[in-house]
């Protein structure tokens, strides 16, 4: 499986169903501790727990327009700890958006499609 067993994964998505499905999928792949957050602000408050990976929804503020979006949270995570791996998850199939998130420090950009969860596991397995 992985070179390093990932101990802590944060899933940040304001779509509760998506978060729960992803948590269930990751749990079946034997990853250890998975924590769900519906806002980026909640994630940032809990970074002291030092997650290995943050799976971050690009369109975080779709429900609450006052909340920070995924790009803002990505930038904040990288300022706090540049070693946390961030995987951006998005419904947008836009090359420019993907490139922008990678340039800002995301490990990868995964489009929410039928293969998204498998892609996320493959990315996590490839992390050292």
TrEMBL record:
InterPro entries linked to this entry: CheY-like_superfamily (IPR011006), Sig_transdc_resp-reg_receiver (IPR001789), WalR-like (IPR039420)
Keywords attached to this entry: DNA-binding, Phosphoprotein, Two-component regulatory system
Residues in Response regulatory domain copies: 8-127
Protein name: Response regulator
Residues found modified as 4-aspartylphosphate: 57
Coiled coil location: none
